[in-house]
Target: Tubulointerstitial nephritis antigen-like isoform X1
Amino acid sequence: MWRCPLGLLLLLLLAGELTLGARRGRGRRELAPGLHLRGIRDAGGRYCGGQDLCCRGRADDCALPYLGATCYCDLFCNRTVSDCCPDFWDFCLGVPPPFPPIPGCTHGSRIYPILGTYWDNCNRCTCQEQGQWECDQEPCLVDEDMINAINRGNYGWRAGNHSAFWGMTLDEGIRYRLGTIRPSSSVTNMNEIHTVLGPGEVLPMAFEASEKWPNLIHGPLDQGNCAGSWAFSTAAVASDRVSIHSLGHMAPVLSPQNLLSCNTHNQQGCRGGRLDGAWWFLRRRGVVSDHCYPFMGSERDEAGPAPRCMMHSRAMGRGKRQATARCPSSHVHANDIYQVTPAYRLGSSEKEIMKELMENGPVQALMEVHEDFFLYQGGIYSHTPVSLGRPERYRRHGTHSVKITGWGQETLPDGRTLKYWTAANSWGPAWGERGHFRIVRGANECDIESFVLGVWGRVGMEDMAHR
Ligand SMILES: *[C@@H]1O[C@H](CO)[C@@H](O)[C@H](O)[C@H]1NC(C)=O
Ligand SMILES: *[C@@H]1O[C@H](CO)[C@@H](O)[C@H](O)[C@H]1NC(C)=O
Model:
């Protein structure tokens, strides 16, 4: 008769359970093919080493995520079909890995295969045959050394990393973020208007257009990677002036795209344009609102065709014009054409510009943009000498245009008092001081006082009933 003591039976059962339980916990590791056998061998790096993770014997929680799977740093990992972390062999055992090391380059905690790449700001790095990285050496638009040098130097303004510029080269910044062509000398000499300050006339210490004309001054635009500042600054100044001169009966944001696509005679859309040409177009053809004809952005592909003109106007007597096309934006119906009178050039004196600004509204100014201006985050800008010691290709500049909206002065912590202009840029509201910047006034800083334009919105009696 077969008899078995109950105690022993229980013990056997329990032991069975125990081994089963352990199996189940470890089951995945044993069933799954090893990482190396699954061909996952092209990314190594610091895993066990990174967290100082080396466990004696078998410890199922001695594990790390590894390329969508799990790798282990316990001694047991080498007895299974190999699910050891890539650095287990040399870090935990101090022996060379049993698999031949894959040729490649490390960056961060990763190994990249030969010809693998990563981006270091604006430069592409490629893994070479010898296991070495080779990176392009372009000057970048956001340059940490320049940021630090400016912030150390007490220049009256702060520099920082504008994230939309991260990854762009300085050359791309100059090519895609500006876009005003310097006027020819015949234009520069043209119709300069001199305003005269009356006897005893004093201008205020500070002025801001948005305080004098609340709700009539429009926020900064964003030209993206379209070198069309000629169209953006013109639309911005015209929008404010049409609003001011119609006493708020019309307060449109005028369409830069209308200019970019339709003002094509001697103009190059997102590859640059002239201010005199833009004002000629606003006077003779007029443009619709930005709602009606929204900005279409720009690919950085300079070879691509410019988007065709989708708005036209015809004369309707007394110099006024009306649209002959529907709004390109399908849900906007108001396709009124806005026009201006001939633009006039102001004398390059600080006081004349101030008087015009205070009496008639924001003015347009040409400006020479240098490499450090892209980094501006606040304060009173002036071009700094921080790039002077660097090779020529780090010192670049290009012509831009902006909307001057006011002035003021500020005493710096070091006791200097700086006079400044406030101006709206067209690099979006996240750049600078909410899309605006302040720049030294009275010193023709960056040529900003050398070519300043004003204009009158063309407003008839009928427009006053517009709203
Ligand atoms: C795994 O590691 C142990 C402990 O160092 C060693 O004795 C054993 O030989 C290793 N096994 C394999 C397959 O490498
Ligand atoms: C700059 O900003 C970008 C985008 O926000 C970020 O990825 C990058 O790490 C920043 N660089 C520096 C040096 O702060």
In short: The chain has eleven helices and 19 strands. The chain has three domains: 7-101, 103-137, 148-465.
